[in-house]
Amino acid sequence: MAVFTRATKNLILKIDEFFDNIELGLLVFREGIKSYLEKDIEAFQRHIQKIEGLESNADKLQRAIENEMITHSILPQHREEVSKLLDQLDEIIDSLKSSLNEINTELPDIPSELNKDFISLTEVSANAAEELIPAARAYFKAPYTVREKLLKVFYFESETDKISLYIKRRIFQEMKDIDLAHKAHLRYIVHHIETISDLAQKAADLLAGMAIKIVM
Amino acid sequence: MILFFLTSGLFLGWSLGANDASNVFGSAVGSRMISFRKAAIIASVAVILGAVIQGAGAAQTLGKLGAVNAIGGSFTLALAAAVTIYVMTKFSLPVSTTQAIVGAIIGWNLFTGNKTDAGTLSKIVTTWISGPILGAAIAVPLYILINRIKKVSKIHLISFESYIRTGLIIVGAFGAYSLGANNIANVMGVFVPAFQLQPLNLGLFTLSSSQQLFLLGGMAIAVGILTYSKKVMETVGANIVELSSEAAMVVVLAQSIVLFIFSSSALSNLLIKIGLPPIPMVPVSSSQVIVGCIMGIGLYKGANNINFKLLGEITLGWITTPVMSGLLAFFSLFFIKNIFGIDVGHKVAEGSIGNDLVISAPDASMSGIMKYLLIGIIISGILVIIYFLLLERKKTRELKLSEEKFWKNIK
Questions:
Q1: Which residue of A has its CA nearest to B398?
Q2: Which of B153, B157, B243 should be substituted to probe chain A, the one whose Cβ sees the most A Cβ atoms within 10 Å?
């Protein structure tokens, strides 16, 4: 029985740590984008290093959680869905890391008049993913509250779509002085930031279904 | 020769283990909360304890239905019931051993010209109806209570499942104990009047003649659990209704309580003391009780997810089992008596059912054989359990090593 308790406690701690990693990753991503827009390359590099550490740790935790669930036969009926949820959350932190890395590699030239819009887009898109974490934590403790928590994810995702469309329109319709390749590159960066909220919505859809199943 | 006659009872015990253990651990194994091996070992030990400690009450009631007064008759009835159960188990239908043996006893009564005691029969058949209803009546409030506790306490899902798993092991052991106590009558009840042994002193305690028979029967049930119950366990757990882990625990607990109620002489005596009517000591169909519990929860949750087709198949089995067993017993008795010339019993004088038993003096040589046989089986059983535990430990250690190797390679 002691083995059960120890395994259970370890697993709970690992799941919490995994969620902490995603939340921290979102904070670092926000700061990373801000520092790039402010041309603070030293801080930007520091954030990239930080997010790489968090992403690698999340990967390890994800594998360990899945292994422990199988080895100790924990949550046999929900294991598959929990693994899928962790996988989708891991995709979010993967996307955060790859976005910062691509910015670091391609060094896009973002016009200063778009800075405010890019910060706003980053904030809202990261908010969508951030609101997903309390809902995911609630799945384990109070599944009845999951759906109401997920409302914010869907709200921020739709806000992200609006802002991204607004930025793209500005780039292609108002900025006549930059060439088409530059415009396409900027759209590509916008798309990268927007992807975070899309991934959050995908995970939210899964989580909503999981919550219904567990409450029924 | 007498030992040979016991083999049909042991075969029936094996059938009961293969079939009815699914009612105790089926929902736990089917919902993958407990591994089959762990469930089988716990159930085997508990069922033997239940049979030996508390098996006498229900066996007496079955004796009143038809006091089989020749060992050849006991052999034939147990064989007819066992074959019936085996055929049903082959089709993965959780049928009732109680109905099979009751059908066989009625077949014996018809063959020997004995009158079936309508009072006892109606008492038994009433429990076939009241058992599932009582099971559902216990299961639904328990299910509501556990869910309420889960909601209010905001316990972590993983901790909750861990507690449920521990609960399933404890409740499963209680269920197996109750199954042994209540259903051993089906396996060895027909042998008790015609089989007399000297008390067996095992140092710490002494086993009476019937307890020795119950111990043998309990062991046969255990072998049935270990060798053949996996398939039926998966049918019960996975096919009738999608069971959540807490529902699985409630179902086993409710069923165990019902079986315990119908086999506890102490509880019955307590009710008499406080001026209430006694509880009938009747072998209850665990299959019917479990289906009642599952249906109760299913109906409470909204009956959309109940597999009515399978329930229909089970209900059909309830009718066909006693009929098939009764017919098989009747014709088998005819063959055994007329072709092999073995005494299968005779008509008992009116009004003396239960008293006109052929109670021979205890056979000393037979008691000696039984003593060494039982001790040998107990020792082998303990060795098998130790072997399985070591196997489990080895598997866990191998898993741990492969985990460590995996993480070492990742680094």
A1: A71
A2: B157
**Mean pLDDT value of segment B259-273:** 82
Q: Are A60 and A127 in contact (CB under 8 A)?
A: no
**CA B241 from centre of chain:** 22
Q: Which two tokens stand for residue A39?
A: 């041309």
Q: Which CATH class is domain A2-215?
A: mainly alpha
Q: Where are the domains of chain A?
A: 2-215
Residue type, A200: A
Which stretches of chain B sit within 8 Å of chain A by CB?
A: 31-35, 151, 154-159, 161-162, 165-166, 244-245, 301, 399, 403, 406, 410
CA–CA–CA angle B364, B367, B370 (5° rounding): 155
Which residues from B are below 8 Å from A8, CB to CB? 158-159, 162
How many beta-carbon pairs below 8 A join chains A and B? 51
As a whole number of angstroms, the distance between CA B61 and CA A130 comes to 66
What's the gap in Å between the CA of A62 and the closest CA on chain B? Answer: 13
Cβ atoms of B256 and B289 within 8 Å: the answer is no
| Residue B154 to residue A144, Cβ atoms within 8 A | no
Q: Report the mean per-residue pLDDT for chain B.
A: 80
Per-residue pLDDT tens over the stretch B354-410: 444 444 555 667 677 777 777 887 788 788 888 878 887 888 788 778 777 776 776
Backbone CA torsion sign across B58, B60, B61, B63? positive
How confident is the model at residue B140, as a pLDDT? 93
Q: Which residues have a Cβ under 8 Å from the Cβ of B226 and sit 6 or more positions away?
A: B17, B40, B41, B44, B384
Interface predicted TM-score of the whole assembly (ipTM), two decimals? 0.80
pLDDT of residue A44: 93
B157: which chain A residues are within 8 Å (Cβ-Cβ)?
75, 78, 139-141, 143, 214
On the CB side of B247, how many CA atoms lie within 13 Å of its CA? Answer: 27
Distance of CA B119 to CAs B283, B322, B323, Å?
A: 15, 18, 20
Please answer whether residues A119 and A33 qualify as being in contact, where contact means their C-beta atoms are separated by less than 8 angstroms: yes
Please check the confidence at residue A160 and state whether its pLDDT lies above 90: yes
Identify the band that residue A117 occupies on the pLDDT scale cut at 50, 70 and 90. very high
Highest mean pLDDT among A147-161, B28-42, B215-229, B309-323: A147-161
Shortest Cα–Cα distance, A197 to chain B (Å): 27
